[in-house]
Amino acid sequence: xxxxxxxxxxxxxxxxxxxxxxxxxxxxxxxxxxxxxxxxxxxxxxxxxxxxxxxxxxxxxxxxxxxxxxxxxxxxxxxxxxxxxxxxxxxxxxxxxxxx
Amino acid sequence: xxxxxxxxxxxxxxxxxxxxxxxxxxxxxxxxxxxxxxxxxxxxxxxxxxxxxxxxxxxxxxxxxxxxxxxxxxxxxxxxxxxxxxxxxxxxxxxxxxxxxxxxxxxxxxxxxxxxxxxxxxxxxxxxxxxxxxxxxxxxxxxxxxxxxxxxxxxxxxxxxxxxxxxxxxxxxxxxxxxxxxxxxxxxxxxxxxxxxxxxxxxxxxxxxxxxxxxxxxxxxxxxxxxxxxxxxxxxxxxxxxxxxxxxxxxxxxxxxxxxxxxxxxxxxxxxxxxxxxxxxxxxxxxxxxxxxxxxxxxxxxxxxxxxxxxxxxxxxxxxxxxxxxxxxxxxxxxxxxxxxxxxxxxxxxxxxxxxxxxxxxxxxxxxxxxxxxxxxxxxxxxxxxxxxxxxxxxxxxxxxxxxxxxxxxxxxxxxxxxxxxxxxxxxxxxxxxxxxxxxxxxxxxxxxxxxxxxxxxxxxxxxxxxxxxxxxxxxxxxxx
Lengths: 100, 481
Hints:
The complex is a heterodimer. Helix content of chain A is 78%, strand content 0%. By secondary structure, chain A is an all-alpha fold. In chain A, helix 2 packs antiparallel against helix 3. Chain B has a two-stranded antiparallel ribbon with strand order 1-2.
C-alpha cells in the first residue's frame, strides 16, 4: 500500500527538480522542460489528494492544467523559434541586450 | 445532476462575452477579407459594449456557474479598471504600432482576450477559476510582449516574461493543489466556512499551500523579491503593451490577492507580518533601484514595483478600509501611470528614439503642453497634492495608521520622499537641460491626444474632487453569497 505522503513527497521532489532546473539551466528548451515538470508535479499532487479525499474535483482540474500547459508550450516554442531565427542560439545567457 | 437547471447565469458575465465576441471577430475576419484596418474599431466597439454592461452590473450581487463566478461591487470596480486600461492601451497603440511596422489585427484581439482573463480573475471565488483567468490573461501577454518579431529587445522581453510567468503559474498551481489537499475543495467560501476545522486537521498542508500561492501572486504583481523580470520586460516590450501590463495584470493580481488573502485566508494570522515585510521590501527596493536609471521606461518599471509596495501597505491594514483604499489607489494608479506611458509612447514614435533620459532634454522649449502634462504625471506618481496620487497615498497610509501600523507608514512616507528625487529628475531634464542636437518634433495623433486629455483630467480632477472616487471605492467591497 502506497500512502498519500509518499505521493506528496515524490511530487515535491519533482517540483524541486523543476525549480532547480529553471534556476541553473542555461538552455531555453531545458527551461521549458523544467517548467513542465513543475506543472506535472502539481498534477500528481492533485490526483493523489483527490484519491485520498475521495472527491473528483482534482481529477477534473488536472485536465484543465494539461490544456493550459499545452497552450503555454505552443506559445513558448513559437517564441524560441523566433529568437533562434534572430540570434541563432538557445543559450539564455546570450540574450543579454536588456540586462537581467 | 440535472443539466436543465444548471446554474448558467449569463447575466453576470455580459462584459466578458462582449469582449470575447469582439476578439473572435477580429481573429476570424482576416481569413475572409484579408488584412484590414477594422480591427481597432471592432475592439473599441467591444470595449464600449463591455463598459456599458459593467455599468449595468454596478450594485448588483449574485453568483453563478455553481458558485464559481461571483458578481459584487469589488469585482465590478476592477472590471472598470480593466476596460479603462484596455481602451487607453488600444488608443495609444494604433499610431505607435503602425510606425514600428507591427500593426497587426492580432494585437487588438489578444488585448481583449487578456482583458477577459483579468475580469475572470477578479470575479471568481474559486481557486481553479482564478488560475484559469490568470492563464487566459497571461498567455496573450507573452505574445504581446514579443510581438515585434524583428526587434531583438522585444524577443528577449517576450521570452523572459514567458519563463518567469510560467514559473510563477507553476508555484500558484502547486499552492492550489496543497490547499485542495488540506480542505478537499477549491471554493473559497467553503474554505472560509470550515476554516477552523481545516486549520486543526491539515495545518501543514494548508500553510504550505498558502505560502506557495503567495509566491505565485508575488511574481504576478511584481513584489520584491520576485521582481527581477519586471525592468527587462517593461523596457523590451512595445511601449503600449508595457503601458497595458504595468496596470492591467498588476490590478488583476491584486484583485485575486485581495480576494484570496483578505477573504479566503483572512484568519491565517502570520499573513499580516508577511505582507508587512513584502510591503517594506517592495517599496524600498523599487525606489532605491529607480534612482540610478537612465531610461524612462526602466524608471517607470521600477516605479511600478514601488507602487505595488504601497498597495501592500493597504493589504497590511486589512478590513474594509484596506480593501477600499487598495481599490482607490489602483484606479488612481491606472490614470497617472497610463498617462506617463502615453507620453513615452509619443516620444518613442519618433524614429530612432529609445526613451533614454538624454532624449528628453529640450522637450519643454519645443513642446510646452506635452512637458507640462509629463510633469503633472510625474508629480502624481511621486504623490504631490493636488493630484490624485496624493489622495491615494494619503488614503492608504491613513488606513494603515488606523489599523495601528505606524512604523510601516513612516517607512512608506520616507520612501515617498525618496521617490520625489527620480520623478523630478525627469521633469528637470525636460525643462532645464539642453541637448546639442535639435529636439526631433513629436507627431500627435487624435487618439493619443484623447488619451493624454483623459488621463490628465483624471489625475487632476480626481485629485481636486476625490469624493466621487472615494464613494466608489468605499462601495467596492466583497459581497459573498
